[in-house]
Amino acid sequence: MLSSANINVAETLQKFKDRGIAVGFIVPTETGLNKSIMDAHDNLRRFLSKHGIHDYEEQSQGTDNKKILPTLLFSSNEVLETSTSLYRPETKSGDPRIWIYKLGGFANPGDLIAVAATEQRLVAINCSQSDLNNLLSPTNQDLMKLFPISAREISDAANKLLEMLSEVSRQGFIKTMRAGDTGVGYTLETLLGIEANSKKTPDYNGIELKSSRTSKAGNKQSTVFSQVPNWKLSNLKGSKDILNKHGRFNSSKGRDQLYHEISCTKLNSYDLQLELKDDWEELRQIYLPDGNKERKETDVVWQMDKLIERVEEKHQETMWVSAETRGKQSDEEFWYTAAKHTTGLDPTALPILLEAGSMTVHYLIKRTPSGAAKDQGYLFKLAPKYLPILFANSVTYNLTRR
Predict the structure, then answer these.
(1) Which pTM does this prediction carry?
(2) 177, 242: one domain
(3) Distance separating the N- and C-terminal Cα atoms of the chain
(4) Which of 48, 73, 188, 327 could form a disulfide with 331 if both were Cys (CB 3.0 to 4.6 A apart)?
């Protein structure tokens, strides 16, 4: 799995995104290099299918149905003409396999291999043994021929929204129209004449509008989407079950509650953690009492395809607006200074960001006076600096200069 890579996967993906190249990743193991075989994990299969390269679901088992694609392999300072096989063996259930011929002589166990595609061939890049800054530079003619840089078009609706946002920005600091966390979004939508939207549909002519306060540290998270677990697949069957098992009494509020962030990379103080199932088809929230892995319990499950579908539904086109702030509570003021325009989801990025701990899940569950449990959604949050990784295209605009 990608967690065994010897370099940071999320940061590497960002470099390809900045260059406008869509990639999937594989990490060869020692056994795989020795046997010339690698698993085509769920995330790689999703990438190959989305970009029209190969669909394992439609491939029959056996060597007669193997697909061979010409491939350029970049490793260190070398470029090698080779080929890649995509197949499903006759053994077991035909688990999807991939192999880049001659990779064994150009990669070590744990190296991160990026896979991209042109109309004519696959392109494989050993990211661990290559100078990516030089390789992905627009001055590198080898990659420029394969992946020319094209201008990014912007929709008429996005242009109009940017003009409206710039007009708001020129007003400088504006007093909040609602105290509290939601003030930054409510105030902007009111200034734009957009009615508050609690539905799943976009806010402005097909464009979702998201607002947040600028964080000096640059790592304050924003909610990207909300998605309840698949209760049928989960051991805990609802918010009340989660609260009963993990909630704690808050004396100042006089109630049981569970307000906590959960990550794939570490246990939180409630001994809760996220994990991706080996094939990345599921995200699970697990419980490790006192950190004991032998006592691991799986509480709830999300299916990865559903999470990807939710982001695609919510954020086909989104304007992420950030505001500088001053003052507090009802006297808080906002100056909307920047907007990040994103289009299209990169489905391979979501599990990578989760596994890297860049995206986390937030429980916001409390006990009501009647004894029931009320949640504010199961929030998937991400720091703004990681947004370009999640989406296919991302452009940032300085609203103060438009």
Answers:
(1) 0.82
(2) yes
(3) 44
(4) 327
